[in-house]
Design a protein that fits this description.
single chain, 422 residues, alpha+beta, five-stranded antiparallel sheet, 62% helix, rod-shaped
Length: 422
């Protein structure tokens, strides 16, 4: 039976140690793969302070949208518009921020994917390097002469010998460490890419929700603005007429109308046309025609549509019997309003008939929208002065009795009574 010398045994152990270390490197290189998992579930987007504020604004806007614009005070209408405008601005900001975050997350995901692609190439290069080194070590292992040189070294040379042996060990360990750190870096980059993609999807969904909320907020805003413009058509028409009768009252009405007009400037109109042709016309567009001049009757100096003359006569007689002397102005020809629109708005068909009153300078009512032009409205005076407050005795009597005769107050204008309640 063959025997093994101590020197051969030592050499054998060193050779086995060398190849064991090489094998370990190969095993590590082959097993340091990176599994690409599915996209991380982002879950529900947490409700933060910004979302809570948006929800509060939306709830306030719901309340504001219920304000009766035609009957509310100027302060109530302006407050409602302010709330609605703030809601729109808030929803616009939320949409802009959600889109910004979605874009930022998408850009971060793209960068993480580019980093991961580079790291993957680095990892492949390290694997190839280790594989090449291991094959070379297997084909050309340390020869006997080298091992005998190590054995022949004196004890005083042990430090040098150990340094030579450890150098290769550290080199091999460094390669393994590089493989491990590169794998960890790749996993982190892929995880970051997945998370950023999930964040981008969540922010995109948030942006879609914000877009829908913005659309709803704008619809509310435009609906109320349209009612304000309807009120302006009434108020401005009265202001233009009454200023000739009572300069102070005319200025009061005009100032209120200017404040309302200023509050809706820039809000898209949901009901008026959008053309701006330059053709001069005195004919309203289809569907926007003013009521034809009605049959008219004058009752105690007030000209109204003949259809309500009997009711008006009864009302005036009843007020007189109670000691309230009512007079006033009823029917107004819309041609005077056309002339004002030409002067303040322009001469095109759109400018005369469709342009919102707040788009004119100064704001001017559209012809064909006032109940006065139908002979169905009266601006009342009591004892020779326009009724300009709800404490006026004439208003108090009308509030208690006018409904019996089919006339109802426009609350924003104590002097204005018409048939719209019927």
């Amino acid at each position: 039976m063959a025997t093994t010398s101590p020197r051969s045994d030592k050499q054998s152990r060193r050779t086995r140690r060398f190849f064991a270390l090489t094998a370990a490197v190969l095993v590590s290189a082959s097993t340091l793969g990176v599994a690409v998992g599915s996209s991380v579930d982002a879950g529900a987007v947490a409700t933060d302070a910004r979302t809570q504020r948006a929800n509060v604004r939306a709830e306030q806007a719901k309340v504001a949208a219920q304000v009766n614009v035609l009957e509310g005070s100027k302060a109530q209408v302006l407050a409602a518009l302010s709330t609605l405008n703030e809601n729109v601005r808030g929803q616009q900001a939320a949409l802009s921020e959600a889109r910004r975050q979605a874009d930022a997350s998408a850009a971060e995901a793209a960068q993480a994917e580019r980093d991961a692609a580079q790291t993957s190439r680095d990892l492949d290069a390290l694997r190839a390097r280790v594989a090449k080194y291991a094959v070379q070590a297997y084909v050309e292992p340390p020869d006997e002469a080298l091992m005998r040189r190590f054995e022949a070294m004196s004890a005083q040379e042990d430090a040098t010998r150990n340094a030579l042996l450890n150098m290769q060990s550290r080199t091999d360990t460094d390669v393994i460490d590089q493989l491990r750190s590169t794998k960890a870096r790749l996993e982190e980059q892929l995880s970051r890419a997945r998370q950023s993609k999930a964040d981008a999807e969540a922010h995109a969904a948030e942006a879609q929700g914000a877009l829908q909320s913005l659309s709803a907020a704008q619809t509310q805003q435009q609906a109320v603005a349209s009612q304000v413009r309807q009120r302006l058509d009434e108020t401005l028409s009265d202001a233009a007429f009454l200023s000739r009768m009572d300069a102070g009252l005319g200025r009061q009405i005009a100032d209120e109308a200017a404040a309302l007009a200023n509050a809706v400037i820039g809000i898209p109109s949901s009901g008026s046309g959008s053309g701006s042709g330059s053709t001069t016309t005195t004919t309203p567009p289809g569907g926007n025609s003013p009521y034809p001049t009605p049959a008219l009757t004058t009752v105690n100096g007030i000209t109204v549509a003949s259809s309500i003359a009997t009711r008006v006569r009864g009302l005036l007689n009843a007020a007189s019997a109670d000691g309230i002397n009512l007079s006033g102005y009823g029917y107004r020809d819309f041609n005077a309003q056309i002339a004002l629109r030409r002067q303040n708005c322009g001469t095109s068909q759109y400018a005369i008939w469709e342009m919102p009153p707040d788009a004119c300078s100064p704001p001017t009512a559209r012809p064909g929208y006032s109940y006065h032009e139908r002979g169905l409205a009266i601006d009342f005076m009591a004892n020779g002065r326009f009724i300009n407050s709800q404490s006026n005795p004439g208003f108090v009597w009308l509030a208690a009795n006018a409904a019996r005769f089919g006339l109802y107050n426009l609350p924003s204008e104590p002097w204005h009574w018409d048939t719209r309640g019927t």
